[in-house]
Backbone:
């Protein structure tokens, strides 16, 4: 079973702010869902890029794990293009 990494835990390990850590975890979770959907639908990166109105090279970079300078907006455009809907839950910190 995979152990989930929290954004705060990731931030501490990488020496970044908790907000940036949470953002990285959220992006990774969304991209994982996109990859699963793309695989199930047998979508090419070119087709996904066309649906999301993004350059194919950007889509390939995002889906290969390059998160530098990737905005949450672009990731959400890919979520929609893959036929998915994103939800977020917020809870009180321990």
Residues:
């Amino acid at each position: 079973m995979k152990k989930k990494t929290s954004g705060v835990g990731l931030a501490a390990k990488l020496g970044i702010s908790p907000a940036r850590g949470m953002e990285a975890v959220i992006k990774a979770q969304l991209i994982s869902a996109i990859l699963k959907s793309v695989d199930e639908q047998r979508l090419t990166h070119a087709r996904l890029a066309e649906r999301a109105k993004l350059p194919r090279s950007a889509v390939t970079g995002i889906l290969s794990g390059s998160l530098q300078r990737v905005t949450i907006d672009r990731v959400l455009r890919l979520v929609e293009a893959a036929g998915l809907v994103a939800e977020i839950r917020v809870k009180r910190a321990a």
The radius of gyration is 14 Å.
